[in-house]
Amino acid sequence: MFRVFRSWNPGAPINHSSQDGAAPQLELFAPHWTAERLEARLTADSGHRVRVALTRNRVAMASVRADPDGAVRLRLDRGFGQAPEPVIQALGRYLKGRRRVDWEVVARFAGNLQPTPRAPAPRQLLTRGRVYDLAAIRDRVNHDFFEGRLACRIGWGTRGRRRRRAWSRTIRYGSYIKAQDLVRINPILDDPRVPADFVAYIVFHEMLHAVVPSESGLRHRPHHAGYRHWERRFPDYERMRRLSSELVNVLVG
C-alpha cells in the first residue's frame, strides 16, 4: 500500500489554470469527479478494474491496494473530487505502471489538501438581521460565483460591547470555520449605511475559503496569491477593498 500522509511535505502549491472572462462565475469546480466517474476513467486509463471510495480520512489522503479478485481499491480524500486533469492523468499512469514519478504528481496534490476534521453538532444560526438576510445573500453568491455547489451554513455573529477606537482598525468582518463549513458575519454589517454589495463581497470572501485551501509552510497563509487571484473576480473588487477600510470609521467611530 502506498499512502500520502498528512505530514508529507507538499512543496510548492498546485497552480490551477483559469480563463479570463467577464462572467462572474468562478471556474473552481471543473472537472467535478464523483467516485463513479473516477472509477470509469481510471479503469479505462490503467487497464485494471478500479474501485474508488472518496473519504474524509484525516491521516491518509490517498491509498492504493490490490483486492483478492485482482481489482485495485483506491481510497481518496474528497478533495480529489476537484482534482485537475493532470492529477487524474498521473493517477491513471501510476495505476498502470507504478512509476514513482507519476505518484509524486498525485502526492503533491494530496499534500495541499486540508484534512477535514469531524464537525461538531450544528447549532442554530441567526440569518435574518434588521437590514440583511444572510441566507438570501449566501444563496445568491453561491449561484452567481460557485455554480450553486457550496453548502456552507451561515449566520450572524454575536454582538459584543464596543471597544476602543484603536481596536477598530483590526475589525474582522467575517470568518470561515472549515470544521463546521460555517460562515460567520460580524453583525456590525447589519446596518443601512453598509452597501448591500459590500455585504455580498464579505460573504463571497468567506465562502471562497471553502474551495481555495490555505497554504501551509513556515506560517499559515489563507490569503495567498492564489486566493487573491480568485477574489479579484468579484465585481468592483477595488471599491470593495476601499470600503473595507472606510466603513470602519463609519461603523465603529
> What is the percentage of strand-forming residues?
5-15%
At the fourth level of CATH, the homologous superfamily of the largest domain is Metalloproteases ("zincins"), catalytic domain
Q: Spans with pLDDT under 50 lasting ≥5 residues?
A: 1-23, 164-168
Q: End-to-end distance, in Å?
A: 60 Å
> What best-fitting shape do the alpha-carbon axes yield?
elongated
Strands in their spatial order, largest beta sheet = 1-3-4-2
CATH architecture descriptor name of the largest domain: 2-Layer Sandwich
What top-tier CATH class of the largest domain fits best? Alpha Beta
H and E string: EHEEEHHHEHEEHHH
Give a short account of the largest sheet.
Answer: 4 strands, mixed
CATH level-3 fold name of the largest domain? Zincin-like
- Total of domains: 2
- Total of helices: 8
Structure classification: alpha/beta
- The value of Rg in angstroms is 21 Å
Quantity of strands, as a count: 7
Overall helicity: 25-40%
Mean pLDDT: 80
